[in-house]
Amino acid sequence: MATFVCRVQFLDDTDPFNSTNFPEPTRPPHYTFREDIPLINQIAGVHRLLRAPHKLDDCALQLSHNGTYLDLESSLSEQRDELEGFQEDIAGTRGKKHSVVLRTQLTVRVHACIEKLYNSNGRDLRRALFSLKQIFQDDKDLVHEFVMAEGLTCLIKVGAEADQNYQNYILRALGQIMLYVDGMNGVICHIETVQWLYALIGSKFRLVVKTALKLLLVFVEYSESNASLLIEAVTTVDTKRGCKQWSNAMEILDEKDGVDTELLVYGMTLINKTLSALPDQDSFYDMVDGLEDQRMEAVAKRFLGRRGTDLDLMEQLNIYEATLRHEDGDDESNPPTGLSGLKDRRRASFGDKRRGLERRRSRRASLGRSGNASPCSPSTQHSGFQPFKGQGGEDMSKRTGVQSPVTPANKSSLGGLLSSSYRQHQESLSAERERRRAEREERLQRIEREERNKHSRDYVDKMEEARMARDERYKHVERLAAEEFERDRVPRSRPDLSLTFNPVEAWAPTSSRSTTPLLPGVSG
């Protein structure tokens, strides 16, 4: 009969929002497991030995060295792989050994979390949402169970009716969920989450918009197929609102609520990442034409032609312009590898037989405005190395009658020139970006110091006013006490007592003999 002797502890997590990460007791007892008997038949002995506060039917066993939950329906001999490394001493802890931890099952904790979120409000709901991220961070296995139990639906329902502080807590928890593969797969299968994230970038609260844009960037970068899901979510949300597609992102780029460079960079990056992941022409040009219909070209010209524009924003706008020219076929040269978002021209959509073999082009190219980004655009400068390219080149050849040969040597020299020019441009951009970031950090620190000094001055002024008010109260109390003391010193006169005497009566000489009248019949 094989046995397995180990230390046992319990973790009081009966309330997921008020649990601890420290198993008890600190001096754990030892328990002898039978390796040939299912653990569900032995867990009652562990529960009784530890006197744990858990319900016996809700208990699970977890290994402390790797966080793995043991299958209660199986025996230890059937889970030998999970116990690998369990008996080894922990390095640097003087021979301290691992333990088997008794705690609440994952499904029970998940249902308790969801029930708490649905049934709480006010301060209790705020505490629960704030703790949610730490709960997922402490136990990664909880994420899978939360997603399977429709926890994402719960978060969206609570967030739709909550204020911006609660939405920030929900976004923090959602970001922790998306860090895990199971969590990200759950979000991919739950399109309502993507729709909610896109709807939030139209919020009037900067932190909510920023966090939602970050999560959408993580979602799009995770897999190229997620770009189509994002476009589907955007279409659904904007159709319900009666707006054009990507209207929330364009409102950010139009600086509707004031200048915020960070949001502009995130919004433009999201557009570029989505365009980069689209597989065919129709989806690409549908999105581009929708953006151009909302004055995307004017937005790009405004920022690229403005002095002092953030370099990260300029880079993203240049990527958009270069991608559009490359896809339209206006720039036949190989794009520089440093620009993420540029790749081979997309294939035509399946079943697209209109106009024979003619490729679809953007609305801007159809109107003859292609390549009008800005002189500041590095990609525009790159195209300047081929002045006789396209229709203009054909006309020039016809006028001169000379056909300029294109040799491999010319191609290689031109490629080297492009690479060198682009590399220098990138280095200067990087140096300028670092300088701008240092200036921004210094400006933020200065603003923080000014706010702190202002707060200190206001605090000192308030304290001085309070001291003066306190002194006035003391003086008033002292004045009242002095008046009361003066009144107590003077003897009070009674109104019914007269102190007026007749002087004659007061000073008449007194006789030594009694003046009592004699009784009749009594002689002296």
How much strand content do the residues show?
A: under 5%
Largest sheet: 4 strands, mixed
CATH superfamily of the domain at 3-80 and 96-104: Phosphatidylinositol 3-kinase Catalytic Subunit, Chain A, domain 1
Oligomer class: single chain
Name of the top-level CATH class of the domain at 3-80 and 96-104: Alpha Beta
Tertiary shape: flat
Mean pLDDT: 78
Characterization of this structure:
Helix 8 (191-200) packs across helix 10. This protein starts with a strand and ends in an 18-residue tail after the last helix. The model is unreliable at 336-342, 353-357, 371-406 and 408-415 (pLDDT under 50). The chain has a domain at 3-80 and 96-104: Ubiquitin-like (UB roll), CATH 3.10.20. The chain has 524 residues and is mainly α. It has 20 helices and four strands. A four-stranded mixed beta sheet has the order 2-1-4-3. The protein is flat, with a radius of gyration of 42 Å.
Task: Give the arrangement of secondary structure elements.
Elements (H helix, E strand, L loop, with lengths): L2 E8 L19 E5 L8 H8 L8 E5 L35 E6 L1 H14 L3 H16 L2 H8 L2 H10 L3 H15 L2 H9 L1 H10 L5 H17 L2 H17 L5 H7 L7 H17 L3 H13 L2 H9 L6 H18 L34 H4 L11 H6 L6 H11 L7 H82 L13 H4 L18
Parallel strand pairs: 1-4
Antiparallel strand pairs: 1-2, 3-4
Question: What's a concise summary of this model?
Answer:
The protein is built from 20 helices and 4 strands.
Throw out a few tags for this protein.
524 residues; mainly alpha; Ubiquitin-like (UB roll); 4-stranded mixed sheet
